[in-house]
Amino acid sequence: MIAFGQFLEVLVSGLLAGVLYSLVALGFVLIFKASGVFNFAQGAMVLLAGLALVRSLDFMVAKGLPFWAAIVIALLFAAVVMAITAWMVERFVLGPLINQDGLTLFMSTIGVTFMIEGGAQMLFGSDVYPLRLFPSDAWFLFEGSFPGGILVSKIDVWGGLIAAVLVVGLALFFQKTKTGRALRAVADDHAAAQSVGISLNWIWFIVWLVAGLVALVAATVWGTKLGVQFSITFLALKALPVLIIGGFTSVPGAIVGGLIVGAGEKLAEAYLGPFIGGGIEYWFAYVLALVVLMARPQGLFGERIIERI
Amino acid sequence: MFYRETGQFKTSYAADMQIFPIRQDRIALWVLLAVAFIGIPLLNAFHIWPFGNEYMLRAILIPFLILSLAAIGLNILTGYCGQLSLGSGAFMAIGAYSAYKFGTGVHIPFGLFDLSIPPLPMLPSILLGALMSAVVGILFGIPSLRIKGLYLAVATLAAQFFFDWVFIRVKWFTNYNSSGSVSAPDLNFFGFVVNAPIERYLLCLIFVAIFALLAKNLVRGNIGRQWMATRDMDIAAELMGIRPLYAKLSAFAISSFIMGVAGALWAFVYLGAWEPLAFSIDRSFQILFMVIIGGLGSILGSFLGAAFILVLPILLDQVPHALGVPISVETVSLLVFIVTGALICWLLIVEPRGFARLWSTGKEKLRLWPYPY
Asked: Using CA atoms, how far apart are residues B226 and B263, in angstroms rounded to an integer?
């Protein structure tokens, strides 16, 4: 029973950590679906959102505002920062690059990454800033069934809840609103969408804004977990295998991919790690992605790749 | 007016097929080589600015040469064969660590019988190290037969992260050094120990010149054409009788070989003592930037891109000093980030095909000058 309890604990913590990967991967999927841009800057956007949030929060708490008011204002401020970023990216980088091939756009988002990373740290400072939005202790579940119970971190549960709300919200936004319909139209075919009077520039701004807000949500959770710091940008890289496994174009894929990667790497670390030297987490997700790619090049949920000459 | 091929008649196939068909280009190349091989060592010997001090050689010229070589390697894969790779750092690392193992003696305990290779001389160890890199390159190139584009890029990321981990965790590669850092053995080439910066520079220059020539000839020949056909449209290429297996895997092998050489040089000649961090994902991105900024599918572009990406931060670092503006080191490094990012975006907007395209447009203009057409 001990072994099974431990297995469950590892599995649950892995799944919940996976939800957090999904949060970052979601931002990628949104932008890729709507504009075909593989947005490398998502990790940097998480950093920017987190820094804007935590710095304005600290500032207002220091000024003596009540904590709830400070949180609301800080969230609004961070959202405005993300909106400005989205507008600038659309206006100055992606707008002029319309009709370039995917690689060029991908490169340009790496350039954007550098600018956001530099700019965010220059504006808001480059230390580690602790963010305390959610309780950081843990629950012990099923203490009756397993000796010691199963340890579940509260932040991870919060992260899971927030991710669920976010996915439902995004699904509603995509399915029920006029803008959401326009977004889906653009994702299907740029030219056709344009010909029925949908403004590409506006849609792209919206997409980047939504991705920025998703980054903000990811930042609140990751920031509470790790503190807001530069290393948060490496999340972007962890989200890549998640995307591969789920498929670039699928929102549910991003969630499922995140869960698979999270659970897989925690389990591998716990059960394979001792045999081959530990630290497998570092590469496990990528090798998993590689294996998935060999079997199913478009990812688990991706659209079938059809090639024509 | 000066740059025109009028009157230069080709009387043989050899003359028609040469790398630089225009005489002015050939003269320019020989001048450049003369400056690189003779001029710079002379300037250095007599301490004449700007090559008189070690800084110029150590901090700019040597890394420039080595990274150009790595960029040529990646350009063969990404620029000529169209396979996007984010794992250049890993292949450089494999070259470096394998060369290190060959240079200090390989010992693999197999239980009953031990496989031992005595320490090899420098040149064979570098080349064998690069060969190991090529073998691993082929292994990680196999997915390219099924996937392409950004998906493949993530597959190569797997190589990057896996080998980062291997060289940190598997102590065998670092000869059980407790700190995990490794110092290169003496750079002994046929009895001549390369040590002074100028000697190191010349060593890199020889390697780069040879491999650039080899690469240039490869991409002009049969195999290069197969790569380019695969890049432009792989299915069409396959229908025309190009074997994708052979074309793609050969590109992976040759590209990793060159990157392996570059990695070994980077570790042995430039760094001297290094940690796995020297070949992290940042290095991969740096080289990818060089290739894209310089121009995909151009050997010259690899050099231009390497120069730009390498020199830009150094220049940006110097500007505030030169202007006498007091800015903290940290702010400068952040500014470098912002400006590099902005310049990359700007270059992509202005000329998505990179410096190589600017260069050829310039040459085209020069041929007509001073007439408009």
From this structure: 27
ipTM of the modeled complex: 0.80
| Distance, CA of B147 to CA of B82 (rounded, Å) | 12
Long-range contacts of A91-96 (CB under 8 A, 24+ apart): A92/B345, A93/B345, A93/B349, A94/A35, A94/A37, A94/A204, A95/A201, A95/A204, A96/B349
**Total tally of structural domains belonging to chain A:** 1
Q: Is residue A217 part of a domain?
A: yes
- Cβ separation of A107 and B348 shorter than 8 Å? yes
| Shortest Cα distance, chain A CAs vs residue B359, angstroms | 19
In angstroms, the CA B33 to CA B38 distance is: 8
Write the CB contacts of B360 (distance below 8 Å, at least 6 apart in sequence): none
Sign of CA dihedral A70, A113, A208, A300: negative
Does the beta carbon of B312 lie under 8 angstroms from any beta carbon of chain A?
Answer: no
Q: Do A107 and B164 touch (CB under 8 A)?
A: no
Establish if B345 touches chain A: CB-CB under 8 angstroms: yes
pLDDT at residue B284 above 60?
yes
CA-CA distance, B59 to B36, in Å (whole number)? Answer: 16
DSSP state of B273: E
Instruction: Give the separation between CA A12 and CA A6, rounded to whole angstroms.
Output: 10
Query: Low-confidence residues of chain A, pLDDT below 70?
Result: 1-2, 134-151, 277-278, 302-309
A6 assigned to some structural domain? yes
A55-91 confidence digits (pLDDT tens): 888 888 888 878 888 888 888 999 999 999 999 988 8
**In a domain? residue A279:** no
Length, in residues, of chain B: 373
Q: Which class would CATH give B53-368?
A: mainly alpha
Omega prior to A96 cis, within 30 of 0: no
Higher per-residue confidence, B330 vs B212: B212
Predicted pLDDT of residue A35: 73
* Cα–Cα distance for residue pair B67/B288, rounded to 1 Å: 11
Cα B255 to Cα B236: distance, rounded to the nearest angstrom: 23
Interchain contact, A293 vs B146, CB within 8 Å: yes
DSSP per residue, B53-101: SHHIIIIIIHHHHHHHHHHHHHIIIIIIS----S-HHHHHHHHHHHHHH
| Inter-chain residue contact A114 with B334, CB threshold 8 Å | no
Please give the DSSP secondary-structure letter assigned to residue A129.
B
Q: Are B282 and B86 in contact (CB under 8 A)?
A: no
* Reported pTM: 0.86
Domain interval for residue A61: 2-231
Residue A247 included in any domain: no
Question: How close, in Å, is residue A199 to chain B by CA atoms?
Answer: 21
Using the 8-state DSSP alphabet, how is residue B8 labeled? -
Place of tokens 């000529």: B80
